[in-house]
Specification:
The chain is about 75% helix and about 0% strand. With about 325 residues, the chain is an all-alpha fold. The protein has two domains: about 1-120, Farnesyl Diphosphate Synthase; about 125-324, Farnesyl Diphosphate Synthase, CATH 1.10.600.10. A two-stranded antiparallel ribbon has the order 1-2. A hairpin with a 2-residue loop joins strand 1 and strand 2.
Amino acid sequence: MITFEDALTLVSQKIKDIHYPKQPARLYEPIAYLLNLKGKKIRPALTLLAYNLYADDVQKAVNMALAWEIFHNFTLMHDDMMDLADLRRGELTVHQKWDNNTAILSGDAMLILAYKYLAKYPMNMVLKNLLDLFSITAAEICEGQEYDMQFETRTDVREEEYLNMIRLKTAVLVGACLKSGAILADADAKDQDALYDFGINIGIAFQIQDDLLDVYGNEAVFGKKIGGDILCNKKTFLLVCALNNSDEQSKTELLQWLSVHDQPDAKIKAVTELYDKLQLKKKAVAQIESYYGNALRALDKMNVAKDKQTVLTQLATELLHRTV
């Protein structure tokens, strides 16, 4: 069995080895730029790990892993432009380093490149299953992004709506990366579905943890300013819960702060104090632990020896307790 670190190293090297056409340089340079920025690369590594549960030669899953990583970064390139984000992984976003038109077109070229890597597999039922999974997942991520944008102007987003949005925007990709590895290794359908469910639950837990860290994380460790989501009124698990569980007075105060844009420190302090009053940190941690438990129960359904599952359970635990 390869380790998670082995999988990350292999993915990183293969990304560096990607060959791009020399011209037009303005189309391909942003792709290489974004793919080679420092990033977690968890998703493609999961494809390799899932494949390795059933087969030894993980090189056979590399093209699938690259397809997912290229696709993921395509979504980031376009999301950054929609969010007017200046930085990605500590460096300028593509639309800031180049321009909006370049980010649109280079992003489109990335999506095409992702399908090219997927198409390297032989034309058979395995490829059809991979294409179906890839296309369904891509469409669901677009749906999640649309919901996320709709939520920006709403103050009545329900908790179940938010959880469904992050399932679509974040978790389905994690689940699909795992399932695709199992498909390539010819695992049975039950195991494929169990790995997908594991990924869905870990993906949702990961996003709630991200929401939590933005408010309660250690700024020096987290790597970005605490309270960024509060300042831009981003709908997070904490904000949605606050809007749904506050009394009238607290909700009125919260809505007032959402309209404030020129008092950053005071806004972060006031909203965080409201979260504390509602004990939302405790509620978020309970949700994270619940999804973590669901993920482990999904693994229990697999016809794979427990010692082989260790790499996934350890990774899930690390994600649960992460600080960045």
